């Protein structure tokens, strides 16, 4: 059956994924649980499965636009793919042994980390502009960088396999803070890598019977045009505007994860808090004027 509400969720989240690389698991899973009444395990599995298709479309678009660092994506995937498979296996074992209490503990920890990350990204973009000068278009793949990418991918891949959260938000954070890529390269690399990661995790959940194919089809009806729209818009969004946008979406992801953990947050809070942070960032930017880094970006564009 066609469900207009689920299609609308897919459209909105698809635009966010295409534009920022973030929002898939961190927002869609809570939306399915809260508003569509989907059981959590099925919501996680279906979310990962639809995300694989959506981010494949987005990743291909970003690759054509030149916003993907293939080297970083490859070495992250070397760790994240086996990590995600182990995560799916672990969540099934831990559910059998401890029940849903384990999920709540893990989700609270992830939500807390995302709130800290969102605050860090926003403060870095708005109040520490000198740090932005360290951003780079690509990363030199030394042995240490490759090993770090594999290890980081393994840990975050495990979290994605267990909760569906983090393929965009947490990997995107690593690309910002660890690899220091420019915002457009963060989004493109994040989406491209997530496509690989989500195929492995989504197929594992499908094998274990956690994917609702009808629900997945409804989401895709909205998310595929949404991600196409988002990726088309990214080249029209200036980097100095995309940085605080990434922070706001991370904040929204954190609130979405809290609702997934059982915290009763109304939809107005989940939408209003990130929107308020974005408005504050816009006002501060207008009062401060165009920063030197943005001027340099405009001159080289």
From TrEMBL:
The record's annotation in InterPro entries points to: TM_pro_TauE-like, TSUP/Inactive_protease-like
- According to its UniProt record, where is this protein mainly located? membrane
The question of whether Cell division is a record keyword is answered with no
User: Which sequence ranges are marked TM in the entry?
Assistant: 6-24, 31-53, 73-94, 106-127, 147-179, 191-207, 213-234, 265-284
The membrane topology of this protein is:
Multi-pass membrane protein
Which Gene Ontology cellular-component terms appear in the entry?
Answer: plasma membrane
Which UniProt keywords are present, listed alphabetically?
Cell membrane, Membrane, Transmembrane, Transmembrane helix
Q: Does the keyword Oxidoreductase apply?
A: no
Q: Where does it live in the cell?
A: Cell membrane; Membrane
Sequence similarity: Belongs to the 4-toluene sulfonate uptake permease (TSUP) (TC 2.A.102) family.
* The protein, known as: Probable membrane transporter protein
């Amino acid at each position: 059956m066609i469900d207009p509400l689920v299609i609308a969720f897919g459209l909105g989240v698809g635009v966010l994924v295409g534009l920022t690389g973030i929002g898939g698991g961190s927002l869609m899973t809570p939306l399915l649980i809260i508003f569509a009444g989907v059981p959590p395990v099925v919501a996680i599995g279906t979310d990962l499965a639809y995300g694989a298709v959506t981010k494949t479309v987005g990743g291909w678009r970003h690759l054509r636009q030149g916003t993907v660092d293939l080297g970083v994506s490859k070495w992250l995937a070397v760790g994240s793919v086996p990590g995600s498979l182990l995560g799916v296996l672990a969540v099934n074992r831990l559910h059998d042994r401890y029940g849903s209490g384990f999920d709540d503990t893990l989700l609270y920890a992830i939500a807390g980390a995302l709130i800290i990350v969102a605050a860090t990204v926003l403060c870095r973009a708005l109040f520490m502009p000198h740090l932005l000068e360290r951003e780079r278009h690509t990363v030199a793949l030394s042995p240490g960088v490759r090993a770090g990418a594999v290890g980081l991918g393994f840990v975050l891949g495990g979290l994605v396999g267990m909760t569906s959260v983090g393929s965009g938000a947490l990997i995107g954070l690593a690309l910002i803070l660890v690899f220091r890529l420019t915002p457009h390269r963060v989004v493109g690399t994040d989406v491209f890598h997530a496509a690989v990661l989500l195929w492995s995790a989504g197929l594992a959940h499908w094998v274990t019977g956690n994917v609702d194919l009808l629900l997945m089809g409804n989401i895709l009806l909205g998310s595929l045009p949404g991600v196409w729209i988002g990726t088309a818009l990214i080249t029209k969004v200036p980097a100095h505007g995309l940085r605080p946008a990434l922070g706001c979406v991370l904040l929204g992801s954190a609130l979405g994860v809290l609702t997934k953990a059982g915290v009763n947050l109304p939809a107005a809070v989940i939408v209003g808090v990130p929107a308020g942070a974005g408005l504050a960032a816009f006002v501060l930017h207008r009062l401060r004027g165009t920063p030197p880094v943005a001027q340099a970006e405009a001159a080289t564009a």
